[in-house]
User: Fold this.
Amino acid sequence: MVNAKMEEALNKQLNAELYSGYLYLSMAAYFEEIDLGGFANWMRVQAQEELSHGMRFYDYIVQRGARVTLSEIEKPQSSWESPVDVFEHVLSHEKTVSGLIDDLVDLSIEERDHSTNNFLQWFVAEQVEEEESASSALNKVKLANESSNGLFLVDSDFGTRVYTPDTSE
Assistant:
């Protein structure tokens, strides 16, 4: 059983993960609108990952005998200046999420909640991967902006990304 303070924090993170999925869907819609279907695919895969992260929090809250409390999901941004602007936002957002996870880990230590701390370690490692993926994608998009065929090539590359559900527990 988690205490009330931890329950509230876990529910807040559940909301943040759902917001992330919503944000990436908004980015996908932006790319659909400007006919970059591969970029849209990259964002749709990212949205699926974030929604699965939200479900991890949901399931953990239930497993620990706590109450899931869903709250309003903030409306995400819906337009950007350029593909580079979008991916700069992605990297910034992932760094923010890493900070939220770090805060949760700190709280789990403060509350001496070892089970939650153990649960959160998966997210600590996942955020390293998320930041690396966002940084790599941003670098590709920046390079593509310097070439007349660059966006086409990156769009083709991003179109091959596939969502693979994580099966580790």
Q: What stands out?
A: The CA atoms of residues 108 and 115 lie 8 Å apart. The chain is about 75% helix and 0% strand.
